[in-house]
Write a structure and sequence with these properties.
123 residues, two-stranded antiparallel ribbon, single chain, 23% strand, 5 strands, alpha+beta
């Protein structure tokens, strides 16, 4: 005894739905691209977080751009505070007071001798 043709057609459709392959689905390639971009974004965020110039870090960092040149810049980050200094190109120009004398020894080491009454003694 055979089943009704409409019932056989319904069974065939159900089998086709169950056997449907995901290989032809174009959304899957988009999902894979999104996954790749999420991994790249996570790697970039980790790199920024470990950067010494990270504005959210608590440590103290000093960065010197173009050392010894006329356009030298010094950036000092102390926690959330960032100070920026630019060289004027003039030798010996600046603000401050003499704090002592430095001597270079024969072995190449440096010795700093603070002067009496200098700014370091007052702290």
């Amino acid at each position: 005894m055979s089943a009704h043709p409409a019932q056989e057609a319904a069974r065939a459709r159900r089998r086709n739905l169950l056997d449907d392959s995901d290989e032809d689905d174009p959304i899957l390639s988009v999902v894979n691209l999104i996954d790749v971009f999420l991994v790249i974004i996570a790697a970039l965020l980790l790199a920024v977080a470990q950067s010494p110039a990270n504005p959210f870090g608590a440590e103290q960092v000093t960065v010197i751009k173009n050392p010894g040149k006329e356009n030298m810049e010094i950036m000092i980050k102390d926690g959330q505070k960032i100070e920026h200094y630019k060289a004027s190109g003039e030798i010996g120009e600046g603000q401050g007071a003499k704090a002592g004398v430095a001597y270079k020894m024969k072995d190449g080491s440096m010795v700093y001798v603070p002067e009496a009454g200098s700014a370091n003694d007052k702290q």
